[in-house]
Amino acid sequence: MANQLGLIIDRSSPVPLYHQVVQGIEAAIHSGILEPGSRLENEIDLAAQLNLSRPTMRKAMDELVRSGLLVRKRGVGTQVVSSQVRRPLELSSLFDDLSNNGKKPTTEVLTFSHMEADAATLATLELPAGSKVYHFTRLRKVGGKPLALMENWVRDDIATMDEAMLASEGLYAILRRGGVNFRLASQRIGAMIANDYQARLLEAEVNSALVTMERTATDDAGRRVETGHHVYRADSYSFDMTLVQR
Predict the structure, then answer these.
(1) Where is the HTH gntR-type domain (predicted)?
(2) What secondary structure, in 3-state letters, does the chain show?
(3) How many C-beta atoms lie closer than 10 Å to residue 72's C-beta?
(4) CA neighbours within 13 Å on the CB side: how many for 49?
(5) Measured distance CA(225)–CA(170) in Å, rounded
(6) Under 8 Å CB-to-CB from 118, ≥6 apart: which residues?
(7) N or C, fewer C-beta in 10 Å, the chain?
(8) In angstroms, rounded to a whole number, what is the distance separating the alpha carbons of residues 209 and 199?
(9) Measured between alpha carbons, how far is 67 from 19 in angstroms, rounded to an integer?
(10) What's CA 117's distance to the chain center, in Å?
(11) Can you give the three-state secondary structure of 174-200, one letter per residue?
């Protein structure tokens, strides 16, 4: 496997040996030599082929697992994870981002209701008492593989929506058609471990890592239009962002 991947260890290089292994395997993954789902040989064999110590090889593999490129599965070994959905950190919908990147997302609407908003939703969307909202949960898939479990609350005085519409297109497309011009959003990204319900729907293991996102979007008229709590499979999803010094 090491020879097939073209891994070359330069002991005269200032780059640590373990990081040379990391760089070599990363290059093999990004170039397609190692395809998603490919199994790697065990660390002892890889270390022997590269004439490295087992702790050095273990450190390299740990780094690749932490970065989300490899995953260790009991009874299977170490595998290349499926290609991640890399999402730019901007005010756009997941459906739009996936479609714009040539992917074909599908959506299953799990629950849908038109209901009087509770106190927390009224406060978040800055609505008067007695206001109604659309409340729904959706399971978003890419290539038949579950990616995201999404729960949203949307004010009902802008656009009409139903389950069929949400199953066939993105939420932001529906709202834009209703005249919403999104201006800004407050967003929080975090992490959690999957509970039984989330793991079953996302086809993940219980206690596996999930990326979380909470967002409340505001339009150019100053109205808080929607708020949502989303969870994503951490082995298939990441955010890209650019940081600027001020």
Answers:
(1) 15-83
(2) CHHHHCCCCCCCCCCCHHHHHHHHHHHHHHHCCCCCCCEECCHHHHHHHHCCCHHHHHHHHHHHHHCCCEEEECCCEEEECCCCEEEECCCCCHHHHHHHCCCCEEEEEEEEEEEECCHHHHHHHCCCCCCEEEEEEEEEEECCEEEEEEEEEEECCCCCCCHHHHHHCCHHHHHHHCCCCEEEEEEEEEEEECCHHHHHHHCCCCCCEEEEEEEEEEECCCCEEEEEEEEEECCCEEEECCCCCC
(3) 12
(4) 17
(5) 15
(6) none
(7) C
(8) 10
(9) 13
(10) 28
(11) HHHHCCCCEEEEEEEEEEEECCHHHHH
Q: Which residue is it, tokens 């951490």?
A: 234
Amino acid at 169: E
Count of residues making up the chain: 246
The rounded distance, in Å, linking the Cα atoms of 155 and 193 is: 30
pLDDT in tens, 65-77: 877 788 887 777 8
pTM: 0.62
What pLDDT digit, counting tens, does each position of 146-192 carry? Answer: 989 999 999 999 999 999 999 998 899 899 898 888 888 888 889 99
